[in-house]
Amino acid sequence: MTTEDKLIALTSKYVRDPLGFIKTFFPWNSGLLKGEAGPEDWQAEILKEVGLHLLHGHKAPLYYAIASGHDVGKTALVAWVILWFLSTRPHPQTVVTANTKTQLETKTWRELAKWHNLALNKHWFEWTASKFYFRKNPETWFASAIPWTKERSEAFAGTHEKYVLMIFDEASAIDDEIWKVASGAMLEPGAIWLAFGNPTRSLGRFRDCFPGGKFAHRWKHMRVDSREVRRSNKEQIQEWIEDYGEDSDFIRVRVKGIFPRAGSTQFINEDVVNQAMNAHLVPGLYDYAPVVLGVDVARFGDDKSVIVVRQGKAVKKMRKFYQVDTMKLVGHITEDVREFNPAAVFVDVVGVGSGVVDRLRQLGYDVIEVNGASKPLNEVLYHNLRAEMWGNMRDWLKEAYLPKDDELKADLCGIEYGFDDKNRFQMEKKEDMKSRGLASPDMADALALTFAFPVAASAKKKAEDYRKMYVDYGPPSAMSV
After folding, report:
1. Does the predicted TM-score (pTM) go above 0.85?
2. How far is residue 422's CA from residue 71's CA, in Å, rounded to a whole number?
3. Dmax over Cα atoms in the chain, in whole Å?
4. Architecture of domain 3-256 in this structure
5. pLDDT digits (tens, 9 = 90+) for 23-65
C-alpha cells in the first residue's frame, strides 16, 4: 500500500468515530499544539455522542444544541466536525453559518483554516474565504460559509444529498426564519445539525432546543460552564463574578452557559434608585469633586431636552425642557455653565444635538460632543459608548444621591438590556422603548452623559481631607467619590 492508500484506510476507520478522528489526525502535544493533550472533556462527550448515534444506526437525524459560557473552545469543535465530516463522507452537503457575517468570517471560518493546516490529510482539501472543498471534486464535495439573511433563507433549504451537516455558530442570535428553513435539510437519517452559542436570549429557536422549549423533545442538549474548562481564564472569570455577582444574568450567560431569566432584562434595579433618592446628602460633601454637565437634546416631538449637573456622587441640578428650540436650549446651558463652572460639558450630538454643539462653540464655550454609537473605552464589556455610560452610571448609583423625581425614576428603571454577538452589554434603543409604551429615557440619558469620559478634579483639596471632615455624618460608603 502507498502512503496515500494507508491514509485512506486510516480515515475509513473513523466514519462513525469523530472523537477517534480528532485524536488521530492532529499533532497533539507538539508544534502549535504543544501542551494540548486533546479535546476538552465536554468536546469529547459531544464527539462520542455523535459517534454513538451513527454507530447505532438511528433512523432520525441528529440534533444537538450546546449552550456555553465564554472561551470554552466551541469554535474549535466546529472546525473539527467539519474536517471529520468532509474526510469521511463522499459528496456531502455542509452548510455553516453564524450570528453575523463578521463572526462567520473572522472566527468560525478562520478557525477552520487553522485546524485544516494541522490536519494529517491537509493536502486533500483547499480552504478559501467562503468555501472548503475536496480538491478532486470541488463542485460537489465541499462546505460553505453562508452569512444568513431572511431575504436569502433559501440557501439553508434541503437538498437530496445523502450526507448533510448543518452548523449554527452563536446560534442564539440567528433569526427564527433561518431555523425554520434549515429544518427542511434534515431529511436523511445520517443528517447532523449542531447549534452552538452563548445563551444570550431567553426567547427564540435556540432557547427552544433546551428543557422547557417547544423543540426540546427533538434536540439533545448540553450546557458548558467556563469554569470547568481547562483553557478558560479563571482570573478573568473571578473578576466578573466579583463585579456582577455570581447569580447575575451576565455571569449566567457569559460564564455558566445559562439563559438569562425571562423578564429580568431590567438594567437598573428599582431598589437602587429608591435608595439613592432617599439618601441624606451632607452639605459640601463633594465640593472637592469636578462638576460635570450632561445635555440630552430632544430628537422627537414628545421628547424633552434635559440638562444635568453632577458633582461626585450627587446630582446638584436637573432641568427638563419640553418643545424648546435648540437656540433657547443653548441659552439654558450657558446659564448653568456660568453658575457651576464645570470641568466638562458633554452634549449628545446625535440628531439635532450637533446644532447645539456648534452654537455653543461659536459662543466660545468648550463642550465635548458625545455619540453613543461610538466605541467604548471598555470594548470587552460594552457594545458601544452608550452602554458604557449606562454601565458606569449603574455602578455609581449604588452610593449616589438623586433628587426625588418620578420621571427620572421611570427613565432609570424602564430601560432594558441585551447582549451583542460578542456578549457585551447592549442598551435598548429609545425607539424600542416607545414601542413598549414607555417614554424616551431623556433624563436618565442626560445623567448617563456625565459618565461619557473620565474627568479629573480641578480643585486642589484632596478627597481624603473631605472624607475625614464628614466621617461622622454617614456610612463610609457615602464618602466615596
Report:
1. no
2. 11
3. 91
4. 3-Layer(aba) Sandwich (3.40)
5. 999 999 999 999 999 999 999 999 999 999 999 888 889 999 9
